[in-house]
Amino acid sequence: MGHVMKLEGIEKNFGSIKALQGVDLEVREGEVLALLGDNGAGKSTLIKTISGIYPIDGGQITVDGKAAQINSPKDAMNLGIETIHQDTSLAPDLSIARNLFLGREPVTIPALGVFAPLDLTRLKEEAAKLLKRVGISKNLDADAPVASLSGGERQSIAISRAMQFFAKLIILDEPTNNLGVEETNGVLKFIREVREAGHSVIYITHNIHHVMNVADRAVVMRQGRIVADLMIKDTDLLSLEAIIMGAEPEELAAEMRGKAH
Amino acid sequence: MASATMSSALKKPETTSFIILVLVVIGFTLANDRFLSPLNISNLLAFMPELGIIALGMTLLLTAGEFDLSVGAVFAFTPVSTMLLVQNGGVGLELALIIAFAATFCIGALNGILVTKIGISSFLVTLSMLLIVRGASLFLTQGFPLKSWDEESWIRTILAGSFYVGGIRIYASLIWFGLLSLFALYVLNVAKVGNWITAIGSNRNAAVARGVPADKVKIWLFIATSMLAGLAGVISSLRISSASPVAGSQYELEVIAMVVVGGTALTGGRGTIIGTIIGVLMLRIIRNGIVLVGVPGLAFNIFVGVIILAMLVLHAKLHKSSERK
């Protein structure tokens, strides 16, 4: 199976703090990759470097077999990488339709630059089509402000926005953090659908049950390094938890090398 | 599309503001029949566009989640520096205006850069800028209003000329206010950048994550607000043929009150140009009407404050009922 993204020796420092110390990671086509680790392990930093929020201090990012420079969120989006943060991905005061196209607005007279008029008809049509395609059960009005939606609906909208632009890689940063049980199940179901539609997913979470439920592979980070890389079908809940919680990095590295060969 | 805009407009905060405006006008008319006299309307319309023009910039800035306390000081600074150049520097009015507006541009750009790049809150940056700019005007003029200046110029005609329509004196500034309102309305509701402005004020991180150049947009909005305040100051100064270093004192608060009374949120994300126009009319009409009704001069601000608070309570209630959580 080919990979959509390859990270080699990624480093990121904040002053004297080494947040990422040589991270190597491959994201394969059409997989759900769970990124695990305690708070401060470097998960968020890693995601922010991939999504263009922090520039990297060292290492190499390869997307689709080509060396990539990711210096801004726009660069990441252009490479087909879409990131969905826990509850910061949508502007609550904008309508669903306007949120779906935020930063990529269809316009009628592009020559006017930022003053170009939005193509409101197309905006609404595409939004309605999209809401239908992603099967959001309730009848949502594309003109309704996002503030009127529930947390689960908001996450679904954010994920559908990523799918709509045929992102190769969708990064979900704790998407179920503030959701109820039913809404969480809705989002998990959605993640499976995203994989079936051929997108790769990096899924960051603290909830190992969710990982066992939807992920194909789990990568565990600690102190800015990747300390374990396991296929979900080869592991179980307890051993995965043990890796996240304890065991010396050296032992885990040894174990990881053993598993890789 | 037009019909959809119309139907959704009925649910918006500016509709409430508009209904209250109508009630206020009816109330004042019943209380004093001179309220709708041509002379009173002329007075209202002479002054209103000057604050209104600043309010348009302030609306866009507030929608993006920032505000500008230096507008009143800029309102004095731009005409004062123009007139100083004309009267003492022997420079033509055209060139003087270009120089003064270049300086005004820099004030706005500096506000924007300090807020976005250094990360100081716009309250502190623009409060300091208020002191600097007001201080500069006072120092340059030694605290005295400039000599009156009444040479004719095509610039005066297009900015502060006037004509009569059925006994009501209409100033050119009203037309400028109208055109700028239309442009601001277009920018906020139809243009691509309007989507960005709302998104930045609503959830800056989300906007940045979507590739919206939030800092750049904010810097340009600070510049636009300063330039509009300068334009309003120049219009006012040409109308009264004089420039005073203390003109526009406390306009910043008056303008912010107009904008929020119209339904724009002080916290960003929700802005309405129509609401601002209503807010501008409302505050001017209330100030004017209260005097006509015979409220004692010193009690006047009590009424204005109470009315503003009542409007804000109403908007807060309406917004809560429409939002989930």
Explained architecture:
- The complex is a heterodimer of chains A (261) and B (325).
- Chain A is built from 9 helices and 10 strands.
- Chain A has 261 residues and is α/β, with parallel strands linked by helices.
- Chain B is mainly alpha-helical.
- The model of chain B has no long low-confidence stretch (mean pLDDT 89).
- Chain B has one domain (48-283).
- Chain B has helices at residues 2-9, 13-31, 38-63, 71-87, 93-118, 122-141, 154-160, 172-189, 192-202, 204-209, 214-240, 251-261, 273-293, 300-322, and strands at residues 162-165, 168-171.
- The interface between A and B is medium-sized, with 36 and 31 residues.
Beginning-to-end CA distance, first to last residue of chain B? 30 Å
**Order of neighbouring strands in the sheet with most strands of chain B:** 1-2
SS-based structural class of chain A? alpha/beta
Which structural class is indicated by helix and strand composition of chain B? mainly alpha
Strand content of chain B: under 5%
Relative helix content of chain A: 25-40%
Beta strand % of chain A: 15-25%
Give the CATH class of the domain at 3-89 and 170-260 in chain A.
Answer: Alpha Beta
Q: Strand tally of chain B, please?
A: 2
Query: CATH H level of the domain at 3-89 and 170-260 in chain A: which superfamily?
Result: P-loop containing nucleotide triphosphate hydrolases
Write the layout of secondary structure elements.
The complex is a heterodimer of chains A (261) and B (325).
Chain A: E1 3-14, E2 17-28, E3 32-36, H1 43-50, E4 58-63, E5 66-68, H2 73-78, E6 81-84, H3 96-100, H4 120-133, H5 151-164, E7 169-173, H6 181-196, E8 200-204, H7 208-214, E9 217-222, E10 225-231, H8 237-245, H9 249-260
Parallel strand pairs in A: 3-8, 3-9, 6-7, 7-8
Antiparallel strand pairs in A: 1-2, 1-4, 4-5, 9-10
Chain B: H1 2-9, H2 13-31, H3 38-63, H4 71-87, H5 93-118, H6 122-141, H7 154-160, E1 162-165, E2 168-171, H8 172-189, H9 192-202, H10 204-209, H11 214-240, H12 251-261, H13 273-293, H14 300-322
Helix pairs in contact in B: 2-13, 3-8, 3-9, 3-11, 3-12, 3-13, 4-5, 4-6, 4-11, 5-6, 5-11, 8-9, 12-13, 13-14
